[in-house]
Amino acid sequence: MTNQKIEQLLTKLANEVEKVQLDEVTIRRIREFENQVEPYLGAKIDTNTKHTLIDQAKQLEIEFAQRHPVAEGILRELVDTLGKMGI
Description:
The chain is mainly alpha-helical. The chain has one domain. Helices cover 80% and strands 0% of the residues. The chain is built from four helices and no strands. α1 runs antiparallel to α4, α2 packs antiparallel against α3 and α3 packs antiparallel against α4. The longest helix has 21 residues.
């Protein structure tokens, strides 16, 4: 169930990114984050990678807080869900 939630949130984030005007750097960072999360949904990953993914999501969340509140909310939910997965 949690993997499904992550997949749904990633899809929701991708849809939101398509709707808003984002700079190329931000779009690239979001895509990199998505690409790093997807392979690990069914696998165990080491502690360093876990912290890196959470840190990346939190940084993106902070950047979106004022400019893109919907994307920020999706990222916050992703961070919470990843945390519940132990990532």
